[in-house]
C-alpha cells in the first residue's frame, strides 16, 4: 500500500472546502447534504463537522463496483433519502468520481425532485476516467487513474477504515 493522501492533508483540504461551501450560500440558508453510501460516509462526517449549525443531512445508497476495481456502468438505487428535497439547497457528497456514471444518475434523480439548488462535493476525482461529462462544484483532490482505498473507499468492502487514502499494490486486485 502506498499512501497518496495522509490524514492531516485530507483534514486541511476539507476545512477549506467547508469554508468555500459556506461562503457560496446566503448566510441564513440551510444547506442539506446528501451523502452517498457507503464510500461517502467518512468524508461526510468530517465535512459536516467543519461546517456551521445550518447544515442538515441525509443519506442515499447506490450500488457501485461489486468486488471489482472497474465500474460495470450499471447504477442501482439501494436506499433513497428519508426527507423531501423540494425547495432546499442540496449538495451530493460523494467519495470519488470516476467514470461519472454514478453521479450522473444521482444528479438526474435528485434534480427531478425540484431542489432550490443542486451541487456536488467529492473528495476525489479521476478526470482521465470520465465516460460522461458531469459537473462537480467542489473537488477535494484530482488524482490519476489509480485504484485507491481508505477514508471510506473500499476494495471488496475492506480498507474503508484507513485514515488516509492509499493505492493498493496491483497484485492485490489484478
Ligand atoms: P463512477 O460511477 O465510475 O464514477 O464510480 C463511482 C463509484 O465507484 C464511487 O462512488 C466509488 O464507490 C467507486 N470507485 C471509483 N473509483 C474507485 C477507487 O479508486 N477506489 C474505490 N472505489 C472507487
Explain the overall architecture.
- This protein has 174 residues and is α/β, with parallel strands linked by helices.
- The chain contains three helices and nine strands.
- The strands form two sheets. It has a six-stranded mixed β-sheet, with helices on both faces. It has a three-stranded antiparallel β-sheet with strand order 1-9-8.
- Helix 2 links the parallel strand 2 and strand 3.
- The mean pLDDT is 93.
- The site of inosinic acid has 18 residues, from strand 5, helix 3 and strand 8.
Strand percentage lies at: 25-35%
Radius of gyration: 15 Å
Low-confidence stretches: none
- Tally of alpha and pi helices: 3
Shape: globular
Helicity, in percent?
10-25%
Strand order of the largest sheet: 4-3-2-5-6-7
Tell me the total number of β-strands. Answer: 9
* Series of secondary-structure elements, N-terminal to C-terminal: EHEHEEEHEEEE
How would you classify the helix and strand content by structural class? Answer: alpha/beta
Question: Main sheet, how many strands, which sense, barrel?
Answer: 6 strands, mixed
Ligands: inosinic acid
Multimerization status: single chain
Mean pLDDT: 93
Alpha carbon gap, first and last residue: 14 Å
Amino acid at each position: 500500500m502506498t499512501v497518496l493522501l495522509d490524514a492531516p492533508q485530507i483534514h486541511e483540504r476539507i476545512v477549506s472546502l467547508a469554508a468555500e461551501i459556506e461562503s457560496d450560500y446566503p448566510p441564513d440558508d440551510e444547506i442539506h447534504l446528501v451523502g452517498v453510501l457507503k464510500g461517502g460516509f467518512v468524508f461526510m462526517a468530517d465535512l459536516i463537522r467543519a461546517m456551521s449549525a445550518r447544515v442538515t443531512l441525509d443519506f442515499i445508497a447506490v450500488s457501485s463496483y461489486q468486488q471489482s476495481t472497474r465500474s460495470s456502468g450499471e447504477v442501482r438505487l439501494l436506499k433513497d433519502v428519508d426527507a423531501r428535497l423540494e425547495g432546499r439547497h442540496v449538495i451530493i457528497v460523494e467519495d470519488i468520481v470516476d467514470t461519472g456514471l454514478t453521479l450522473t444518475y444521482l444528479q438526474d434523480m435528485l434534480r427531478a425532485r425540484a431542489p432550490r439548488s443542486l451541487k456536488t462535493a467529492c473528495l476525489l476525482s479521476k478526470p482521465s476516467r470520465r465516460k460522461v461529462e458531469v459537473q462537480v462544484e467542489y473537488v477535494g483532490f484530482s488524482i490519476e487513474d489509480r485504484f485507491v482505498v481508505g477514508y471510506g473507499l473500499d476494495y471488496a468492502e475492506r480498507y474503508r477504515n484507513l485514515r488516509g487514502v492509499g493505492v493498493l499494490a496491483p497484485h492485490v486486485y489484478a
